[in-house]
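task queued by scheduler; priority normal; single chain, no ligands, no partner chains; default sampling; output format set to structure tokens
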Amino acid sequence: MQQRLVAEGFLSAADVTGSFDARTGAAVARWQAARGLDAHGVVDAVTADELLGTGSTQVPQRRIPR
């Protein structure tokens, strides 16, 4: 997940630790906000499916009004 966030410009390569830390959570929240998802920084099933491209979940995600 961290590598994907780096590839998409939401996390610095220097911040890749292999652990879900505060910087990773903040990067996830920025990634979620950029896609109109609830920007809570938690990798729920919908975020994981969209970020990692697994497509295994059919759970609807509440969108933030623009």
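post-processing summary
- The radius of gyration is 12 Å.
- The mean pLDDT is 86.
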